[in-house]
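Exercise 7 asks you to align residues with tokens for two separate proteins.
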Amino acid sequence: MVQPVITRESILNGTIRRLVEQSGDDGRLMTDQEREQIVEKVIETAPSRDSIWIFGYGSLIWNPAVHFTEKLRGKVHGYHRSFCLWSTIGRGSPSKPGLMLGLERGGSCNGIFYKIDRREIRSELDIVFRRELITAAYRPTWVSARISDKSSFKAIAFVINRNHNRYAGTLDDETVIQTIAEAKGTLGSCSEYLYETVLQLDNLGMPDRRLASIARHVRQRERELTQR
């Protein structure tokens, strides 16, 4: 597993925010006040006061950076995982954007659910929202979750904001492969993000065949690029 740049410490001490500010991207960043208002709204609309579940479908699977009391594999219905967000501030640059995963409407998505205890809801939501809501590219959304031996419940997931200027829409596989093979940013390479997500999904026994196929083609493209 790769050593994560994003940690509790780097989120809380502002390191991640400063990396974004120094990236050269001219997009608007979310203010602390805006983010705090979203945290409060999530807490107010939570189906339970005892705990909150957070859904991880990308890097949150292998690097959650939050304190949780329970971790379960499961599925979200009504959304699917997609490379639909241009990344100019993490796994890419303004001159050569990368691509990040987001949740798009339709289908379903396997991932990890993290249970946050009521005593830590505000502090842990603050951390994960500082991480995911540096911009308004994602919308924290209550989604329908299902775990095999439990009844359905609600969890917070980061759904793509289609109105954001970095929303990529539906891209053909060739564009996705070439972009991921070439892009690098302040948090590392785009391909590293892809490979780690595929690896951890495989290790958890819930492989994503499309991501795995993209990863194979990206590896081949990277080899071709190094031989030029």
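Second protein for Exercise 7:
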Amino acid sequence: MNESKLTSFLAIDLGATSGRAILGTIKNNRLELKEVNRFANPIIDINGRLYWDLFHLYGEIVKSLKDIQHQGIEIASVGIDTWGVDFVSFGKDGEPLRMPYSYRDSRTFTAPENFFNKVLSKKDTYLKTGIQIMNFNSLFQLFTQHEDNNPIYPVTDKFLFMPDALSYLLTNKMVTEYTIASTSQLLNPFTRSFDEELLRALNLSKDNFAPIVFPGTLIGTLSESAQKQTHLGAVPVIAVAGHDTASAVMATPAENENFAYLSSGTWSLMGIESKEPVVSEETFSLNFTNEGGADGSIRLLKNICGMWLIEQCRKEWTKEKDVSYDEIVLEATQADPFKCFINPDASCFASPESMIDEIQNYCKKTQQFVPQSIGEIARCIYESLAFRYKQVLGNLKSLADFPIDTLHIIGGGSQNNMLNRFTANAIGIAVVAGPSEATAIGNILLQAKAFGLVKDKNDIRKMVRNSIDLVRIEPEDTSLWDKHYSEYLNVFKEL
């Protein structure tokens, strides 16, 4: 291998709305990034059911690899990360049996209650798994298929989570990567293996899943078919932290352990790193989750509805005229502050026909000012998110066995300077914003670790600090934000 091949890695980073192929090259202890391909990842609505287009995603990965080859770039390996919980069903012949359902499909809306009534109580389910109860968790998706007598369920040989399914299409090798499996609510967080009692309740066994592997494991090389399509050789495919948040957290540019992170994108995920699972009466009542970290740690975190709120509003606004995210922020800046608030995690915002209508209805029901303009609605969302972050951070401070003096905001949302400033003001501690491409960076540097180019988490984070310009924001007007926080809590409790 030549030097460039040893130091260049391709990250396939798939989010719930779009995907990117990012080339990362390590030079002089710094990481250089180059976007190779960016593409949509639309949810497909077929007869009222919501699916992901598995073959579209595979085609875009192949296109990305072909683009690399056409540019004459040699890569050491490829790694794939995606959102959590969703999976693909494969038959005994190794063929996918249908396109994977999207976690936003409505069929699981009542699944947790059905499961708790028929199988295991809510509390026992949580204490067994340490995972935040959400209707779309893999556990409830599988339970729904089982209860509905879904025709492909009994003939499914293997369930592969999304990054593992795509790696399989590239390599013809099946694995279950630990961090992505940890989102499923099927794993015991202490043993880091599938819980057999839960599997039996689903009429499944461990044989319905490929062996669990940990980040840094070689899955295989490009299959002969993939080599022919891409005109590349036997490029290794590495199991990175398959869950995008796990990859992103690995790239948090923290200098010590006294921090919380906020991975800001379609979802906001706020948490801390813990050496061991934190599963207790308190975490159950707070509905906190214990997901696997790329280094074997536990990511104690809370899922918060994030930029999804703005993304869905923007879709409606752009039906009349094109509105950029920068314009939305500008409009919000000019709107009057602290006029109205929402609970970003209210169920009405999960998958509404009109996000704007739902926000306005929420404000009407709570007898608040009803926002009308782009700026008023956006300001309501951004201020509510900042207060929600304050709320969750307060819970994390009570759970952590260390002081939290910094919040690192990573991911695409870290570029929203107004929301970052609002967040710092609301939480009353410093915010460090960046990197925006944290997931791809974590993916790339975990591949580099597999090749021995970085040693450990501290080495990875030092390289991120060397490579990325970070923005530090100190809190201002904290007394004013504290005053209006009580107003937010009042409307939060009402719904």
